[in-house]
Amino acid sequence: MKGSRGQLHIKDGLLHDASDLSFLLTAAHELKSPLALIRQLALSLETMQGLPASEQERMLRQITLTSERALRLTTDLMRSSRLEDSLFELEPLNPRQICEDVAHELAPLYKAKNREIRVAARPRPILVVANRELLRRILLNFGDNALHYTDQAPVELKVQMLGAKNTIRMGVRDFGPAVPADLWQRLQSNLGTGAQTLHARPQSSGLGLFVAGQFASAMSGRIGATRHRDGATFYVDLMASSQLSLL
Amino acid sequence: MTKTPYVLIVEDDEWLAEQYIRTLGEAGIRAEFVPHALAAIDSVDAKLPDALVIDLLLAGPNAFALLHELRSHADLAAIPVILCTASADQIAKEDIEAYGVKQVLDKASMVPQDLIAAIKRILL
Fold this sequence. Notes:
The structure holds two protein chains of two kinds. By secondary structure, chain A is α+β, with helices and mostly antiparallel strands. Chain A contains seven helices and nine strands, in the order ββααβαββαββααββα. Chain A is about 50% helix and about 20% strand. Chain A starts with 9 loop residues before the first strand and ends with a helix. By secondary structure, chain B is an alpha/beta fold.
């Protein structure tokens, strides 16, 4: 039982080919990082004497936020594995509102890491054809990824109408060390098509981007990335709705 | 009066880095962290650490790129290194010995005291 590229398929308790195994290894690796952090924090809370109350509260908050991040990943994995069996309702959505929702949802995690996420202003309203939940999850993945690779400047969610006027690009711009050219090339050639650990961006690029690619594909869209001197933009391209132009 | 050891942590998860700093602080070891290899080079240039604790997979150039760079400078090549990684089981000893790596700690199974013990083993 093998479906579209790299999706996790287990039948009778067995994995069925090498790409499934690779996917499983990547998923396991990426879940290991947040779990390792939670464990370290919990061990310290158990054993360290005399930690100030404020420090204990901070560590507990970190445990909560890190657990939520790991749970987001597992939820996405489960949803990704069921994509083929599901029908997703596509509707005209306000992309700026979706960006606002995502920024709002990620704000506590960003705040806890002394970072900022914001939505870039856009002069004219536009609508995108998408499934609200899948689009939200794509942008949450990009936003989570950006948090790990941005130094100080605010991460920015941006909506653009592309030249042909029938495609809307929703991107997340981060600011951090540039990805080396060879690794970037590898990322570009595999983006969204296979679970991978991109060593220059180890925390969530591989699996998070793979899941985002699956979700975009389910909405007849695609994901991509642009490399900047001081970071990167990860984006999803989706069909624009003509509803506003009919008014 | 003995000098307080100074450890530089290169770790892109700042909460984990804070945790290492907290742990080492309990043992009287002063530590600071930087989030990537480029910042590590700057930091080492500004102040020579007694030991480095490095995560293998970093944003931008990875730990091996950093270790290569350190090895290419006579005054930096002798800094002892501890690798702290979630991929400890994938690292071959012969691949890292030449880089001055004294110990590899597995993030998934280590306890806070392991880090203290590893630092004390190479410094004291």
